[in-house]
Amino acid sequence: MTTPLFPGGVAVSGLKVYDWEAADGRCGGSPHLHTASSEGYIVTGGSGEVHTVSSAGRGIHPLAPGEIVWFSPGTVHRLVNHGDLELVVVMQNAGLPEAGDAVLTFPAAVLDDPVAYATAAALPEGDDVTRAEAARARRDLAMRGYLQLLDDLEARGDAALADLHARAARLVQPKAAHWQRLWRETVGAETDRTRDQLERLAEGMPGLLAEASVARGERTPGPRGFGMCGRLQTWRWPESSAEGD
Would 204 be classed as within a structural domain? Predict the structure, then answer.
Protein backbone atom coordinates (compact mmCIF):
# COMPACT_ATOMS: atom_id res chain seq x y z
CA MET A 1 0.00 0.00 0.00
CA THR A 2 1.31 3.46 -0.90
CA THR A 3 -1.57 5.96 -0.84
CA PRO A 4 -4.43 4.84 1.41
CA LEU A 5 -8.07 5.33 0.49
CA PHE A 6 -10.28 7.39 2.76
CA PRO A 7 -11.35 5.05 5.60
CA GLY A 8 -13.74 2.39 4.40
CA GLY A 9 -13.34 3.45 0.78
CA VAL A 10 -16.05 6.10 1.18
CA ALA A 11 -16.35 9.57 -0.33
CA VAL A 12 -17.15 12.71 1.65
CA SER A 13 -18.68 15.98 0.45
CA GLY A 14 -20.20 19.10 1.96
CA LEU A 15 -23.77 19.96 0.93
CA LYS A 16 -25.80 23.16 1.18
CA VAL A 17 -29.32 21.99 0.35
CA TYR A 18 -31.22 23.95 -2.28
CA ASP A 19 -33.81 26.41 -0.96
CA TRP A 20 -35.82 26.38 -4.19
CA GLU A 21 -39.55 25.82 -3.73
CA ALA A 22 -40.93 22.73 -5.48
CA ALA A 23 -44.35 21.85 -6.86
CA ASP A 24 -45.64 20.72 -3.46
CA GLY A 25 -44.62 23.97 -1.75
CA ARG A 26 -41.59 22.47 0.04
CA CYS A 27 -38.05 23.64 -0.64
CA GLY A 28 -35.22 21.25 -1.38
CA GLY A 29 -33.43 18.93 -3.74
CA SER A 30 -34.10 16.28 -6.37
CA PRO A 31 -35.59 12.95 -5.26
CA HIS A 32 -33.43 10.02 -6.33
CA LEU A 33 -32.12 6.61 -5.33
CA HIS A 34 -28.75 4.85 -5.48
CA THR A 35 -28.50 1.49 -7.17
CA ALA A 36 -25.39 0.11 -5.42
CA SER A 37 -24.28 2.43 -2.61
CA SER A 38 -25.51 3.36 0.85
CA GLU A 39 -25.51 7.04 1.81
CA GLY A 40 -25.25 8.83 5.15
CA TYR A 41 -26.01 12.38 6.29
CA ILE A 42 -24.32 14.17 9.18
CA VAL A 43 -26.20 17.40 9.81
CA THR A 44 -23.92 20.37 10.53
CA GLY A 45 -26.29 23.31 10.28
CA GLY A 46 -29.85 24.51 9.77
CA SER A 47 -32.89 22.28 9.81
CA GLY A 48 -35.01 20.18 7.51
CA GLU A 49 -36.12 16.66 6.74
CA VAL A 50 -35.28 13.76 4.49
CA HIS A 51 -38.34 12.11 2.99
CA THR A 52 -37.85 8.46 2.06
CA VAL A 53 -39.60 5.62 0.26
CA SER A 54 -38.22 2.17 1.04
CA SER A 55 -39.30 -1.40 1.77
CA ALA A 56 -40.58 -0.02 5.09
CA GLY A 57 -42.90 2.40 3.27
CA ARG A 58 -42.81 6.19 3.34
CA GLY A 59 -40.91 8.02 6.05
CA ILE A 60 -40.11 11.58 7.17
CA HIS A 61 -36.91 11.96 9.18
CA PRO A 62 -36.21 15.30 10.92
CA LEU A 63 -32.76 16.79 10.42
CA ALA A 64 -31.04 19.12 12.89
CA PRO A 65 -27.38 19.70 13.82
CA GLY A 66 -25.85 16.56 15.26
CA GLU A 67 -28.37 14.19 13.66
CA ILE A 68 -27.07 11.26 11.59
CA VAL A 69 -29.28 9.39 9.13
CA TRP A 70 -28.28 6.77 6.57
CA PHE A 71 -30.02 4.49 4.13
CA SER A 72 -29.30 1.58 1.82
CA PRO A 73 -29.47 1.27 -2.00
CA GLY A 74 -32.96 1.50 -3.48
CA THR A 75 -34.22 4.00 -0.91
CA VAL A 76 -35.83 6.96 -2.66
CA HIS A 77 -34.80 10.07 -0.75
CA ARG A 78 -35.61 13.74 -0.99
CA LEU A 79 -34.03 16.48 1.13
CA VAL A 80 -36.37 19.22 2.36
CA ASN A 81 -34.80 22.46 3.55
CA HIS A 82 -36.54 24.32 6.38
CA GLY A 83 -33.73 26.86 6.59
CA ASP A 84 -29.96 26.86 5.93
CA LEU A 85 -29.73 23.05 5.92
CA GLU A 86 -26.13 21.87 5.59
CA LEU A 87 -24.80 18.32 5.69
CA VAL A 88 -21.65 16.28 5.46
CA VAL A 89 -22.54 13.51 3.02
CA VAL A 90 -20.77 10.15 3.29
CA MET A 91 -21.12 7.89 0.25
CA GLN A 92 -20.26 4.20 0.20
CA ASN A 93 -18.14 2.87 -2.67
CA ALA A 94 -16.30 6.07 -3.61
CA GLY A 95 -16.21 6.21 -7.39
CA LEU A 96 -19.50 4.43 -8.07
CA PRO A 97 -21.83 7.35 -7.18
CA GLU A 98 -19.60 9.65 -9.23
CA ALA A 99 -19.89 7.19 -12.13
CA GLY A 100 -23.69 7.33 -12.21
CA ASP A 101 -24.88 5.13 -9.35
CA ALA A 102 -27.77 7.54 -8.67
CA VAL A 103 -31.04 7.47 -10.60
CA LEU A 104 -33.35 10.47 -10.43
CA THR A 105 -37.08 9.88 -10.07
CA PHE A 106 -37.99 11.23 -13.50
CA PRO A 107 -41.36 10.15 -14.98
CA ALA A 108 -41.47 6.58 -16.24
CA ALA A 109 -41.28 7.57 -19.92
CA VAL A 110 -37.94 9.28 -19.28
CA LEU A 111 -36.55 6.42 -17.17
CA ASP A 112 -37.44 3.99 -19.97
CA ASP A 113 -35.44 5.97 -22.57
CA PRO A 114 -31.67 6.06 -21.81
CA VAL A 115 -31.07 8.94 -24.22
CA ALA A 116 -33.91 11.02 -22.78
CA TYR A 117 -32.69 10.25 -19.25
CA ALA A 118 -29.10 11.27 -20.03
CA THR A 119 -30.31 14.51 -21.59
CA ALA A 120 -32.57 15.36 -18.65
CA ALA A 121 -29.93 14.51 -16.03
CA ALA A 122 -27.03 16.43 -17.60
CA LEU A 123 -26.17 20.02 -16.68
CA PRO A 124 -24.80 22.34 -19.37
CA GLU A 125 -21.50 24.16 -19.23
CA GLY A 126 -21.81 27.84 -18.43
CA ASP A 127 -22.00 30.33 -15.61
CA ASP A 128 -23.67 29.71 -12.27
CA VAL A 129 -26.95 31.30 -13.39
CA THR A 130 -27.22 28.97 -16.39
CA ARG A 131 -26.31 25.89 -14.39
CA ALA A 132 -28.65 26.84 -11.53
CA GLU A 133 -31.57 27.14 -13.95
CA ALA A 134 -30.77 23.72 -15.43
CA ALA A 135 -30.36 22.15 -11.97
CA ARG A 136 -33.71 23.56 -10.91
CA ALA A 137 -35.41 22.26 -14.07
CA ARG A 138 -33.87 18.84 -13.40
CA ARG A 139 -35.16 18.95 -9.81
CA ASP A 140 -38.64 19.89 -11.03
CA LEU A 141 -38.71 16.98 -13.48
CA ALA A 142 -37.59 14.60 -10.73
CA MET A 143 -40.32 16.02 -8.50
CA ARG A 144 -42.91 15.36 -11.19
CA GLY A 145 -41.93 11.70 -11.28
CA TYR A 146 -41.68 11.56 -7.48
CA LEU A 147 -45.21 12.88 -6.99
CA GLN A 148 -46.43 10.34 -9.55
CA LEU A 149 -44.62 7.64 -7.55
CA LEU A 150 -46.38 8.71 -4.34
CA ASP A 151 -49.75 8.53 -6.09
CA ASP A 152 -48.82 5.14 -7.53
CA LEU A 153 -47.83 3.89 -4.08
CA GLU A 154 -51.28 4.82 -2.79
CA ALA A 155 -52.90 2.94 -5.68
CA ARG A 156 -50.65 -0.13 -6.02
CA GLY A 157 -48.55 -0.37 -2.86
CA ASP A 158 -45.14 -2.04 -3.02
CA ALA A 159 -45.50 -2.80 -6.73
CA ALA A 160 -44.96 0.88 -7.52
CA LEU A 161 -41.55 0.92 -5.85
CA ALA A 162 -40.66 -2.43 -7.43
CA ASP A 163 -41.38 -0.97 -10.87
CA LEU A 164 -39.11 2.00 -10.16
CA HIS A 165 -36.33 -0.34 -9.02
CA ALA A 166 -36.68 -2.38 -12.21
CA ARG A 167 -36.46 0.74 -14.36
CA ALA A 168 -33.41 1.96 -12.43
CA ALA A 169 -31.67 -1.40 -12.83
CA ARG A 170 -32.27 -1.45 -16.58
CA LEU A 171 -31.03 2.11 -16.89
CA VAL A 172 -27.69 1.48 -15.17
CA GLN A 173 -27.07 -2.03 -16.51
CA PRO A 174 -24.63 -0.85 -19.23
CA LYS A 175 -22.45 0.75 -16.52
CA ALA A 176 -22.32 -2.25 -14.20
CA ALA A 177 -19.26 -3.98 -15.73
CA HIS A 178 -17.23 -0.79 -15.30
CA TRP A 179 -18.48 -0.43 -11.74
CA GLN A 180 -17.44 -4.01 -10.95
CA ARG A 181 -13.90 -3.32 -12.10
CA LEU A 182 -13.77 0.02 -10.29
CA TRP A 183 -14.99 -1.59 -7.06
CA ARG A 184 -12.52 -4.47 -7.27
CA GLU A 185 -9.61 -2.08 -7.80
CA THR A 186 -10.55 0.23 -4.90
CA VAL A 187 -12.99 -0.86 -2.18
CA GLY A 188 -12.53 -4.56 -2.92
CA ALA A 189 -8.75 -4.21 -2.82
CA GLU A 190 -9.02 -2.31 0.46
CA THR A 191 -11.14 -5.11 1.93
CA ASP A 192 -8.60 -7.68 0.79
CA ARG A 193 -5.80 -5.62 2.33
CA THR A 194 -7.56 -5.56 5.70
CA ARG A 195 -8.22 -9.33 5.58
CA ASP A 196 -4.55 -10.01 4.80
CA GLN A 197 -3.40 -7.66 7.55
CA LEU A 198 -5.60 -9.40 10.12
CA GLU A 199 -4.04 -12.69 9.10
CA ARG A 200 -0.55 -11.23 9.64
CA LEU A 201 -1.53 -9.86 13.05
CA ALA A 202 -2.99 -13.23 14.05
CA GLU A 203 0.49 -14.64 13.32
CA GLY A 204 2.10 -11.95 15.48
CA MET A 205 3.59 -10.20 12.43
CA PRO A 206 3.43 -6.39 11.81
CA GLY A 207 2.49 -6.82 8.16
CA LEU A 208 1.63 -3.48 6.58
CA LEU A 209 2.51 -1.40 9.64
CA ALA A 210 5.91 -0.54 8.18
CA GLU A 211 4.13 1.10 5.22
CA ALA A 212 2.13 3.54 7.38
CA SER A 213 1.32 6.73 5.45
CA VAL A 214 -0.80 9.88 5.53
CA ALA A 215 -2.92 11.42 2.74
CA ARG A 216 -4.69 14.74 2.35
CA GLY A 217 -7.66 15.59 0.13
CA GLU A 218 -7.35 18.91 -1.66
CA ARG A 219 -10.42 21.11 -1.82
CA THR A 220 -11.78 21.29 -5.38
CA PRO A 221 -11.13 24.88 -6.55
CA GLY A 222 -13.84 27.27 -7.63
CA PRO A 223 -17.43 27.69 -6.46
CA ARG A 224 -19.49 24.81 -5.13
CA GLY A 225 -20.89 22.54 -7.81
CA PHE A 226 -24.56 21.91 -8.54
CA GLY A 227 -25.49 18.50 -7.17
CA MET A 228 -28.85 16.77 -7.22
CA CYS A 229 -29.78 18.04 -3.75
CA GLY A 230 -27.79 21.24 -3.36
CA ARG A 231 -24.49 23.05 -3.80
CA LEU A 232 -21.62 20.61 -3.31
CA GLN A 233 -18.16 21.11 -1.86
CA THR A 234 -15.94 18.24 -2.98
CA TRP A 235 -12.32 17.31 -2.49
CA ARG A 236 -9.73 15.88 -4.84
CA TRP A 237 -8.73 12.58 -3.31
CA PRO A 238 -5.34 11.02 -4.03
CA GLU A 239 -5.59 8.09 -6.42
CA SER A 240 -5.24 4.70 -4.84
CA SER A 241 -2.25 2.61 -5.91
CA ALA A 242 -4.75 -0.16 -6.66
CA GLU A 243 -6.64 1.93 -9.19
CA GLY A 244 -6.21 0.74 -12.77
CA ASP A 245 -7.42 1.90 -16.16
Answer: yes
The tens digit of pLDDT for each residue in 125-181 reads: 999 999 999 999 999 999 999 999 999 999 999 999 999 999 999 999 999 999 999
Q: Quote the number of domains for the chain.
A: 1
In a domain, 2, yes or no: no
Alpha-carbon gap, residue 48 to 64, rounded angstroms? 7
Answer whether residue 1 is part of any domain.
no
Can you give the pTM of this predicted structure? 0.93
For position 146, which CATH number holds?
Answer: 2.60.120.10
pLDDT (tens digit per residue) in 171-216? 999 999 999 999 999 999 999 999 999 999 999 999 999 999 898 8
